[in-house]
Fold this sequence. Notes:
Chain A has 217 residues and is of the alpha+beta class. Helix content of chain A is 42%, strand content 18%. Among the domains of chain A are: 4-63, Orthogonal Bundle (Arc Repressor Mutant, subunit A); 144-216, SH3 type barrels (Roll). The relative contact order of chain A is 0.10. Chain A has helices spanning 4-18, 26-33, 37-49, 65-88, 96-103, 111-118, 165-174, 208-212; strands at 53-56, 60-63, 144-145, 154-160, 181-188, 193-198, 203-206, 214-216. The structure holds a DNA duplex (30 and 30 nucleotides).
Amino acid sequence: MYTLSEENYLKSIYRLAQQPNFKITPTAIAESLGNNPASVVDMIRKLTEKQLIAYDKKKGVELTQQGLKDAVLIVRRHRLWEVFLLEKLGYHWDEIHDIAEELEHISNATLADRLDKFLGFPEYDPHGDPIPKANGKVPKPFSVTLTDLKMGESCRVAAVRDTSSSFLQYLQKLDIGIGTRIQLIEKISFDNSLVISISGKENTTVSQKFGENILID
Amino acid sequence: MYTLSEENYLKSIYRLAQQPNFKITPTAIAESLGNNPASVVDMIRKLTEKQLIAYDKKKGVELTQQGLKDAVLIVRRHRLWEVFLLEKLGYHWDEIHDIAEELEHISNATLADRLDKFLGFPEYDPHGDPIPKANGKVPKPFSVTLTDLKMGESCRVAAVRDTSSSFLQYLQKLDIGIGTRIQLIEKISFDNSLVISISGKENTTVSQKFGENILID
DNA sequence: TCATAAAATTAGTCTTGACTAATTATTTTA
DNA sequence: TAAAATAATTAGTCAAGACTAATTTTATGA
């Protein structure tokens, strides 16, 4: 289909486009890929020529219909492989992302669909992100975070926003996974820290940033 | 680990080294990869510097201990993925090679071993080639072919030598797969064609070349 | 053994996708 | 609004890994 690089740019642009009202600038793409902005400008030119994106100084970068379709397919593959790695091969939460980064680029007309079937058509990946369907439809993502809870309320962890391994390892340490029950005990108004009870156990304090990265049901 | 290209060269050299008494020349490598000999010379230099191969004009190219170890691992990954694609995802015999060519390059310390376990530690891949073990040991390959059968004898198909999709598709047409029973009815002395009965059905005539590519038990 | 063919090698080029440094645009902010 | 800061872009470079064309080595066979 496309080169490794092209696919990574498409995916990165797709991910950035998930943030509502966010203007996708060359710098933003550069940061998300760890590349130099100059390199990004080159690739923007290339992808524009291939009609996968449109770039307008005012609006920033946008995926075209074709670009969106392709990006969604890459994300679909990534998330399906994550499910495979976790459920079938027994990897941990924080190990699967990097491997899926490589697996997602394997292109074969029916691979994603066969894998999807083999896995039982999962709707969400192990990080709770929605897995695009074969027809390109994307299940609704979770959007409420821990910080939206009211005092005393409890919830189930549905997904996480940050997927860095430092965050995922922190979660592991706190014994938090998909489905874990969390109750909000107190909000510290000084810095919006959250005092929570995990699975009914003793209270733990976490930062606002932490809370914003926990999506709940 | 290494670049895509480096890995492909290693694997190609390993495959060529399987043919006994075969001198691995730049031209041979070039042909097996579909590359230009000039490109091969460049890569021979590079791999020699990395101490993965040794090149001697008299002896040709040989894998060093390290090179052999790495090549075996790549072949291990390739063959394990082939088993996965056939057994778990339901691909056909002739579709899996090309996909495994991509999957084999995914490097993660434990991926091959986890996959191996998940598949039940298979000894041979769907083409009947031995799957190197985690410790680098390679199960004994099959070495007797259809042409070694005596008149009237029958056998089981254990593997195939040629893995081109034209051959594999021909096999599919003849309804021959791993495990299929074949009886030798007659050898035509003129051109060594073989008259065989597949799974006890009516007789079929195949060429000597065909027979040499069917490994049997 | 010498001429010819084949193989190996060298030299130089190309493309991809990165980079740095320099320049130009655009935002901020004082 | 002008100066300063930030962002975007251009120009030029680099490495990997392929190529072609030319040259040198090595084999082969008359």
